[in-house]
Every structure is written in structure tokens, then in C-alpha cells.
Amino acid sequence: MKNRYTLSTLALGLLLWAGCKSKDKNAAATAPPATPVNVTEAKTINSTYYDKYQATVVALNSVELRSQVAGFITGIFFKEGETVTKGKLLYEIDRRTYEAAYQQALANLASAEANLVKAQKDADRYTFLLKQDAVARQTYDQAVATLATSKAQVQVARAGVATARTNLSYSQIRAPFTGRIGISQVRLGAQVTPGTTILNTISSERPIGADFVVNEQDIDRFYRLQRHTTDSTFRLKLSDGKMYNQAGTIYAIDRGVNNLTGTVKIRVKFANPQDSLRDGMSAVLNVLNDESGSKIQIPYKAVTEQMGEYFVFLAQDTIAKQQKITLGPRVQDNVIVTSGLKEGQKIITEGFQRLRDGGKITLGMPPAQGAQGSAGGGGAQGSGAASGKQGEKPKQ
Fold first, then answer.
1. Residues 72-128 pLDDT 10s
2. 150 is in which domain, residue-wise?
3. Residue 23, CA atoms < 13 Å, CB-side half-sphere
């Protein structure tokens, strides 16, 4: 009986061992295989990067030329679109009427001065006679009054001469400053009305400005830049994609915030020795970011986004760990990481589309899968943010 129980127990144990072994084999067969991935190290690189603002090139001084006297255009003395120097004669209005008025004013002044000389002599004579009691007091008083009237008439005549001279000078319109003049709005023989008719527009170009707007939260930053600016702080990128070769400085910050847009206008001044910048041109103003320097960079394609937050997968031995990061600016195919990573950590750049936090990984992807992974396939955690060359350093 005892032997029978022993055999039964042994048989039952063998059955249980065989069942557990079969269960372990099934579990191993159904476990997901390790995901092949490619990795790169997070590197600290000395980077210089810029914040970009849409800008418009503007003249620091621009004036509409208008006539201050009426008449007909009798002369145009410039070539449209050229640079004119301060004081250059631009337009002439028929001067004959104003020249005649000036000559008449000079004659009136000469007549008034002659009357003053006569009145002065009469007053002196009657003053002497009055001391000798040889003339009536009334005659003396009339001479003195005539002298005062003559002096006033001389002042009136001199004012008339000044007015006539000014009107005569207004018949010639000269450049108020050195700048580029536009296309004339009037032609020879055209009649102009004082203060109404626009003759032309002239704008300065050396130096020249670039206007852009910033959010009111950034005002303090630009006040600091106004006090401390280097040659690399402001760089202008032209519409043809070329960088302008002159550095800029802050010329002015607008007096207040626009209450409709919450923005402030800022003007940056640039030298313009070759007249490369023209009023009204569009450009992109690059402003040196305060965080330029030694920063961690990783390939941008390794980043995934979930509900406005950014993540990467770290390779820790054979396990993938999802890590939340904070991004800075893009630098070509790379991106700055301001927090969440340390130098030397291994970042999964390809194959992470099929990973979950804690998933098993193996280094090295088959060629076909590697090509598919670099193209950015979908997965449970989302696709990479952009494509790029693995480990490529940004051009400074």
C-alpha cells in the first residue's frame, strides 16, 4: 500500500512539472520580441541661435515735398530715383511774380529809409530851435511824431522785404537732406497749390532702419539689448535668403504698447554704405537668443509630441525609458534641449515608433526596418517630429 502511494505521488509530480514547463514555453513564445533601434548620444555643443521676427525696412527720415507758393512748374533739376544731396535744387516754380514783389519791397524800404532821414533832420532842427525859443512847441511835437512814424514805416518795409525774399526762395524747392528721391508727381507746366500738391517724396538711406514688433512680455529684454549690443545681436536676412553684412543696433523703442495687439514696435538701425537696403523691403530680423552657448542638442527626429508635451526614449541597457524634455529653438536638423537630458545619455533615434515605456530593445536595425524607421512610421507613441541626419552637428 505504501509503495502504491509513493508511485502515485511521483506520477502526479511528473505531470505537474510537465505542465509548468509547457506553460513556460507558451509564455516565452507569446512574449513580444525586443525592438531593434538605433541610438545616439546627447551632446553639449556651443551653439549660437537666433529668434526670428518679420521686419520691414524703413527710412529713418522721409518727407513729402510740397510747394509753399502757387504757380506753374518751370524747372525740374534731378533724375528720378537718384540720390540727391542736401540743398540740391529739385523744382522751380515761375519766379517772375515773386521776383517783382521782392524788387518792389526793396524799393519800399529805400523810400521809407529816405523819409526817415528827412524826419530825423527835421526833428534835430526843431529841437535846436526850441532850445532857442525860436519855434512853436506844436511844430516841434509834430516833427518828433513824424520821426517816430518814419521809423515804424522802415520796420514795415523791412518786414515786406523779408516776406518777399522768403516767397521768392519758396519758388525754388531744394532737398531738405541727403537721400533718395522718388518719381515726380508733377511735370513741367503743371500748376501747384500751396500745401496741397505733392511734388515728390525723398527718404534718407544712410543709415536705414528695420521695424518689427514684439510681445509686451519681451519689452524688458529689448531694453537690455538697447544698453548692451554686440555685432552679432541683430542680423538681417533679406528676401533673397542672403544675410546682410552689416550689424544693427536698436534705434528706438515705441513709447507704449498697442492696446489692440499687445505688441510694441521696435526700430533697429543698420549702416547702408552700398544702398543695398531700400525703404519698404521685407526681411527677417534675427535677434541673438539669450540662451546661446553650450547647450545639449539632439536630432529633432528623435522627439515625439503628446498633448503639447515633448518626449524622447532613452536606451538603458536593454530597456527603453520614456523621458519628458523641454525644447529650445531648432538648429537645422537638431533641436536644443533646455531641460530633461544630460550629456552622454543615449537617445533612441530610430525604431521608437513601436516602443512603449519599459519596452525591451536591441541595438541595430535591419536595413529595411531602418529605412522604414527613418521615414517616420506611426505607432502607439506617435511619429518623430522631423527627419534629419543622425548625430549631425548644426552649422554655426
1. 999 999 999 999 999 999 999 999 999 999 999 999 999 999 999 999 999 999 899
2. 95-170
3. 6
